[in-house]
Amino acid sequence: MMQSTEVLIIRHGQTDWNATKRLQGHSDTPLNEKGIGQALALADTLREEKLEAIFSSDLQRALRTAEEIAKWHNLPVTVDPAFRERSYGAFEGLSRDEIKTRYPESHAAWYAADPDHVFPPGERIAESIRAFHHRAIEAIQRIARPYASKKIVLIAHFGIIESAYRVAHDMPLEVRSRVPVLNTSINRFRVCENRIELIAWGDDGHLEPQQKPADYLKHF
């Protein structure tokens, strides 16, 4: 019987674009003051966990979060662009209302969860849901293989975590996910070859109550 890897997949700390509900995608936005505090609290919470490796998206909001964890464990952060958020093309930097006004057809396809729709290009070319999902899952499975029976951490983005959640719940790409993912909440998965199982979801005990406003749960 093949042994599984426990993978903690954690969203980065808050950025100003998170706070104002603007899509970030590949845009390289930094943590804001609150996000730095969240990263420090997360790192403190994980300091007693026995970790074998720390992985991160190469975007600075994830990398800064990962670096705070690494300080407690004397481990390097392995940076991998495969863990970037989905590329949203022209949608990046815009709010939901701005997208709806400027790109009504693409906005409708987005909310209909069309897995093959590609948003208009912006500074970068956008990815479809399907293309992004395959990128995310392949990368998660790839980093898990060398760490059978051990525990690793991945600091990434909402979309990466949502992709793992979909696989764990056998959720089709055509179904729009409405699961909230708070900044720096801890999500534990068991990964073994092509299987991804959810162990525990959304541990946010390290966050102060005022860091979890009710309207934040009204995610895109």
TrEMBL record:
Kindly give the InterPro entries that the UniProt entry links to this protein: His_Pase_superF_clade-1, His_PPase_superfam, PG/BPGM_mutase_AS, PGM_Phosphatase
One Gene Ontology molecular-function label: phosphatase activity
- Residues involved in substrate binding: R11, H12, G13, Q14, T15, D16, W17, N18, R61, E85, R86, S87, Y88
Top-rank taxon: Bacteria
Checking Gene3D superfamilies in the record gives:
Phosphoglycerate mutase-like
Cellular component GO terms held in the UniProt record: cytosol
**Catalytic residues (UniProt):** H12, E85
Concerning CDD domains, the annotation shows:
HP_PGM_like (cd07067)
Q: What protein name is recorded for this chain?
A: Histidine phosphatase family protein
Question: Native species of this protein?
Answer: Oxalobacter vibrioformis
